[in-house]
Amino acid sequence: MTPFYRDREDWSDLTPIPQNDAPNAVCTIAYDEEYVDAMDYFRAISMKQEFSERALELTGKIITFNPAHYTIWKYRQECLFALNTDLDVELQFVDEIAEDNPKSYQIWHHRQVLTEHYNPDSPLAELQFVGRFLTDDSKNYHAWTYRQWLIRRFSVWEDELDFCNKMVELDVRNNSAWNQRWFVLSASLNGETKEFSVTIEEELDYALAKLSLAPNNESAWNYLQGLVRLANKRGISGVDQRATTFAMDLRSRGSVAAPVHSFLVEMLEIINSEDAKSRATLLEILDDLSQKFDTVRAKYWQFRKQNIVL
Amino acid sequence: MDSPDFLREKHVRYFKQCLKLLPRPYTGGDTNRMTFVYFALGALDLLGVEFDKDERDSIVEWIYAQQILPDPQDRGRVCGFRGAPFMGTHSRADGNATFHPYDGAHITMTYTAIQCLLILRDDLSRVDRSAITAGLAKLQQPDGSFAPIQDGMESDMRFLYCACAVSYMLNDWSGVDIDSAVRYISDSRSYDFGFGQGPHLESHGGSTYCALASLWLMCRHDTLREYVAATTKWCLSLQDQGFHGRQYKQDDTCYSFWIGASLHLLSAGHLINDTANIQFLMTTQNKMIGGFGKYQTSLPDILHSYMGLAGLSLGEFPGVQSMSPALNLTDATVKFLASEAVTWKRQ
To answer: What Gene Ontology terms describe where this protein resides (cellular component) (chain A) (predicted)?
Structure first.
């Protein structure tokens, strides 16, 4: 079959509309001729607002050339809804496109629009899809964003901590997975998660356990520091002390990991004014960071030291 | 004076070529051609290249042909600029325009079109300010964020920033509910003090830039005061040699701008390890054809090529013009924006 709509009998009723860019056009693109032809017919069919099988097919073709074309996706949605196309058929198409274009905003937005429109009783199939996707591309921002949307929209919190555990097992330095834990924790503390709940103390245990295995993990230290701040804000005592003792212990056992010391700087700075001994330790740690453990940020650690000495 | 490693002439040639014709892989950016025009013109501006009058006038006409003006039949369209005539529609100097029901303005295209006009020293006399700000108001969401088009796309920090930059350049904030926008930004601050694209999302170099620049443009950076130290630390933690956008990702040319500019907006530019950052950018510079790639092994593309130069500019690299981090324009162009040359300053 001809790749061009201009040669097709079943499209001969339409008069193609060219882009007709000005002679002084800037940043013109060396399009594929098939894309030009398909767009010419898209302009014509969408001008008439025809939402038909052939229009749907046309959008599919253009998307393979330009998966970021938001107007085409929008028109495709209008065709799907007018034709009442089966959701599974459409998801098959989307999965194929997503495989080659994991970072396209439009594809993920399209999935969300489909879920909104078809409104399944359970988001399980979608959550499983995103779960499989994240196993291969574990830091994909769009996939995590869509996952959070699904969880909120359908209020399904029970299994999310397990999912985070699984993702952290795969890669303990996956900051996206740590962020997702925080998302679950905040929702639980806000009473959004119904019968399921998680506490700051439980998360403290979890973070310390992971840090025992891999102390040089900035993501986990950031999470721990978030927990300490949150506990202090909520008047939960002991969290800051346990975290500080844990980090000091790593240092005294000879750790040279920058994140351990970066964390200690924050903890010790809070108590430095009252205690000469911790002030001396703090200054020593800042020197270690700028001279040995984290030399790329030497200027920063020296700046922190100046602020204390002054 | 220029560093012998910096291939200025090759960069000039690369961006001039981009301005004419982009190769086939750019088809994926067909709706965003205005951003490509901005990257090319912005880069040439950073390189200190001046345009002759004919060239300037010709590009200015093409940009104005993408402006969507108020519709005499009032079909309720959001005004602003489209990225290119991809729906076959054009606006003409006489005010007449062809109509297509799927034609529409995009907030990022409005943002980059105005930037391009300023780089070309146009007086903005044909920009329909009130139509654009009325359009912005329609795009703001109940949570304070912005959608880029009238309907059918996600809303997040990127488009909130575009709305702020447009309002700042037009010197008219009537299209933005500032309190609501500031609330969205605060809600998007993560436990590690970076900012995500929205509430609960992971901190990211790009969204952190958008958040900080928006606050700066809205003159609401006072709301940051108690977090400045922690956000500064988070930004600095993303430097290996160059910068990356999230923990444990690979250094990538564009974050020398996103994170570098964020640090400058936090008044902490002096804490960047410029030497390491510039060394990194020299490795992503393409020695054959000019431009910069995302990574050392990548071919150059127009976005990363612009961002590489912007990163060098923030590091006060010789031969690259100084810039304003919040607007992502050279200081000379921002000075023009502040001058009497711009139409509404004269009214």
So the answer is: CAAX-protein geranylgeranyltransferase complex; protein farnesyltransferase complex
pLDDT in tens, A63-77: 999 999 999 999 999
Nearest to B161 by CA among B216, B94, B204, B80: B216
- What is the DSSP secondary-structure string of B230-250? HHHHHHHTTBSSSB-SSTTPP
d(CA A307, CA A269): 11
Residue A281 lies in a domain: no
Both structure tokens of A4: 């061009």
Burial class (CB in 10 A: 0-12, 13-18, 19+), B69: middle
Which of A116, A113, A146 has the alpha carbon at shortest distance from A129? A146
Phi-psi region of A69 (alpha: psi -120 to 50; beta: other; left: phi over 0): beta
Reply yes or no on whether A103 is catalytic: yes
Interface confidence: ipTM more than 0.95: yes
Whether the CB-CB separation of B286 and B300 falls below 8 Å is answered with yes
pLDDT digits (tens, 9 = 90+) for A261-301: 999 999 998 776 677 888 999 999 999 999 999 999 999 99
Name the β-bridge partners of B146: B140, B156
Q: Does B237 touch chain A (CB under 8 A)?
A: yes
Count interface pairs A-B at CB distance under 8 A: 176
Q: Is B200 within 8 Å of chain A by CB?
A: yes
> How many domains does chain A fold into?
1
Write the CATH number for A73.
1.25.40.120
Q: How many CA atoms lie within 13 A of A164 on its CB side?
A: 22
- B8-345: CATH topology is Glycosyltransferase (1.50.10)
Q: Rounded to two decimals, what is the model's pTM?
A: 0.97
In three-state form (DSSP H/G/I as H, E/B as E, the rest C), the secondary structure along B121-159 is: CCCCCCCCHHHHHHHHHHHECCCCCECCCCCCCCCEHHH
Q: Average model confidence (pLDDT) for chain A? A: 95
Mean pLDDT of B81-89: 96
pLDDT greater than 60 at residue A194: yes
The DSSP code for B80 is E
Q: What percent of chain A has pLDDT over 70?
A: 99
Which has more confidence, B328 or B154?
A: B328
Mean pLDDT, residues B341-345: 86
Measuring CA to CA, which residue among A232, A160, A222 is closest to residue A192? A160
Is position A204 within any domain?
no
For A28, the enclosing helix (H) or strand (E) is strand A28-29
Secondary structure letter of residue B260 according to DSSP? H
Q: Do B191 and A145 touch (CB under 8 A)?
A: no
| Rounded-to-integer distance, Cα B157 and Cα B49, Å | 32
Catalytic residue, from A103, A194, A233, A305: name it: A103
- The domains of chain B are located at 8-345
In a domain, A184, yes or no: no
- In which domain, by residue range, is A2 found? 1-118
R_g (Cα) of chain B, nearest Å: 19
